[in-house]
Amino acid sequence: MKRIIFTLLLASLCLTNFSCVKEKPFQFPFFQGMGTLIKTSAVLKNQNPYEILQKIQALVKELENRLSRYLPNSEVSEFNRFPLNKEFIASPTMYELISISLRIHRDTKVFDITLLPVIKIWDYKKGLIPTESAIREAAHKTGSEFLELLPDSKIIKKKLLEIDLGAIAKGYTAKKIAELLIKEGVSKAVIQVGGEVYAFGGEYRVGIVNPKDKKPIYSFIVQDKGISTSGDYERFFNKNGIIYSHIIDPRSMRPATVTAHSVSVIGPDSTFTDALSTSFFILGPEKSFEILKKYSGYSAVFILPDRSVIKSPFFPYPMDEIK
Ligand code: AMP
Ligand code: MG
What is this structure's pTM? Predict the structure, then answer.
């Protein structure tokens, strides 16, 4: 999906900076999943690449069948049709993602999986500006605070809501592919689900590319981390010189006003980096860094339109400028 600002430099170079020759990664064929391209490279030993690829594809299919709002028979679509005040028994996957989403909603106030009616009327693919009354009407049908999680995987809608997990599901998928590979005995890999990345087992040099010419301008090294980027230049529409992003600010129920060209979040779980990068794109550096205090092990870096960089306090990854 999106604006991929994050290019895995190493995916095309080598899997670690110290053992390129001995451990040449296997690049699995790219495939479509979760509405985007899925790219995996991994150092294989005895594993059969064909079998591993089949397992990755089966896992992605299963997650998509649960989490896609576009598939009419997905669990999310079933939930979206589900009536008011009744107990929906969710799968562990969906329950986990909704509960993480509600936590991030509480912390950021702008991450809201119930914005679907508003997202639909601001469809960046159509490029139309909705009327004030359409915005008001859609806004009435939102509110994460009307989702109640009960024990035993039960969820109740206290308002007729529809959810969209598009800002968190790809990061979750990257993490799940990593878990699968680890289970299969793979020791090093990089997984890219659109703009969401998870890299484990070695040191990985990731690059932030300049949105204008897509050339890397900075890079840094991470290990066992998720890296997610939200930006404004791949999924948006432009009307009379104004950029309307695909990310909605629930405070205005309008596309987020652009404060930065992109924000990347780095941390141990790509599910969280995905949701946080979407939120931080809306909030800008100052508020985001305040929220990060609650997320130990997570860092963020903003790239501004003039190419300058704002890093969260104690940003632990030395950045190299690429000239
Ligand atoms: P991402 O590309 O990960 O930043 O996620 C963007 C996608 O998440 C959009 O295409 C929408 O489907 C959905 N979305 C838009 N605004 C929000 C928001 N404020 N909170 C949660 N999800 C959102
Ligand atoms: Mg996201």
Answer: 0.92
